[in-house]
Design a protein that fits this description.
Length: 439
């Protein structure tokens, strides 16, 4: 048997003749952007995340089914055309094709499944796919064998052995299973193409990896903790947080360094520094590794001493999720449980010890007023950030934001009201571009 784990191409032709490129697997909010390069002519330098769930699931499937030929192909990281992807699949001739889709890419991805060459193929769909569309997908696409909810490491083997039309519910890896997991399988043809220029100080090529899975906080728009590493569309259930042992993280980096000359490491966890003990353990690993590194963090979960140890162990910068410059938005719409004054103080402290800071913000939330957006703009200007990103709020299926729109309200998000100017868009980049065009 042959199984292909595919991050399929995603290109969109615009009315003006320009092309947008989609970023899917590896992104918490899949979106499209203006092209970094033409289809089939990869050019390094644009934001390009590693397909974490896809790569880990490929490895776990190989462990559970050692007799199976498992391959992973990241067409987006290769920058390849649809024809190139189809030619590769024709040569491989997979019995099953695993695709991670999402709210913003689903319509596009279903068009690929309709290509004549895939008529007899068997697809397993994963990722944040609207549950209300499962029956429609099976009806319209006879080549869809199964749909998996949540992280799908150990679910692909189960999906293959399940009857056609099966929806596999969340079945997360336990901490023990994570500790015993194989290292993710990389598409070595594009293993040095992955890139995130922020926080400032990244050196190419770099390794993107996880030291943990999950986040206990319940930001209304955040998809992975609600949909992939948990099942919490209302923002009321306990959320799973599981740490990889430091030995696993060290082995992952060392094995990657045997294959390519990497220059830095980026930990793209939901929240890298949730636990001070774990943070210090990873610092010890990075001291031994000796590569400069960075991470996605919160501003309020570890002590000043732990931040200093991160810096001493080679951490040159961090991403901090602020989301808004309005405390009302943070408390009543996003439900982030973050004190913006404390977050600002942490930012200034990090700058004082020589770290770069990238701030992440979003606009276009339900209940957010123009005055609140002005607060965000002023807050960004007040901070000593090296870089920042301001995204449109994409609505991803299975998140509290998605539930709020469908139900009208949620108690934990009492300020998130569906005002007339709220735009329902799953592609956050398109949304911020539209907001800027009318500002």
């Amino acid at each position: 048997m042959k199984i292909l784990f595919a991050n399929v191409p995603w290109w969109e032709m615009q009315p003006d003749g320009s092309i947008r490129q989609g970023i899917r697997a590896g992104s918490r909010w899949p979106f499209t952007k203006h092209c970094q390069h033409e289809p089939g002519k990869f050019k390094f330098g644009g934001y390009l995340p590693f397909p974490f769930f896809l790569a880990h699931s490929a490895a776990h499937t190989k462990m559970l089914m050692p007799e199976v030929d498992v391959q992973i192909r990241d067409s987006i990281a290769r920058g390849e055309t649809y024809s190139e992807f189809m030619a590769a699949e024709f040569d491989f001739d997979a019995d099953f094709i695993v695709i991670e889709s999402a709210t913003s890419s689903l319509a596009h991805d279903m068009e690929i499944l309709d290509y004549p060459m895939f008529k007899e193929s068997k697809f397993i769909l994963c990722g944040p796919i609207d549950r209300d569309k499962h029956a429609e997908i099976f009806e319209k696409h006879p080549n869809v064998h199964a749909i998996v909810q949540g992280e799908y490491d150990k679910q692909i083997a189960a999906a293959i052995n399940a009857p056609r039309g099966t929806v596999l519910a969340h079945n997360l890896l336990t901490r023990e299973e994570m500790a015993a997991s194989p290292l993710p399988i990389w598409d070595e043809a594009c293993a040095t193409n992955y890139w995130d220029p922020c926080p400032r100080g990244q050196r190419a090529p770099h390794i993107q990896l996880w030291a943990s899975r999950g986040c206990p906080f319940r930001c209304c728009f955040c998809s992975w903790p609600a949909v992939m590493t948990g099942n919490d569309p209302d923002g009321t259930k306990p959320r799973s947080v599981r740490f990889y042992p430091p030995e696993y993280v060290e082995r992952h980096i060392i094995e990657r360094m045997k294959l390519h000359k990497y220059e830095s490491v980026y930990f793209d966890d939901d929240t890298f520094n949730l636990n001070e003990k774990h943070t210090l353990e990873i610092c010890a690993v990075m001291k031994k590794i000796g590569l400069p590194w960075s991470a996605m963090c919160r501003a309020d979960t570890i002590s000043r001493d732990a931040w200093r140890e991160m810096r001493r162990s080679g951490c040159f910068g961090v991403k901090i999720g602020f989301e808004s410059g309005s405390q009302y938005v943070i408390d009543h719409i996003v439900n982030k449980k973050l004190d913006l004054k404390e977050a600002a103080a942490t930012t200034r402290f990090l700058k004082s010890i020589g770290m770069t800071v990238h701030g992440t913000f979003t606009m276009g939330l339900p209940g957010e007023t123009p005055e609140m957006r002005k607060e965000t703009a002023a807050f960004i200007k007040s901070l000593p950030l090296d870089t920042h990103q301001l995204s449109g709020t994409g609505e991803i299926s299975g998140t509290p934001l998605d539930t709020i729109r469908k139900k009208g309200s949620l108690a934990k998000y009492d300020g998130a009201v569906m005002s007339p100017d709220y735009k329902v868009m799953s592609d956050g980049q398109r949304k911020i571009e539209e907001m800027r065009s009318v500002a």
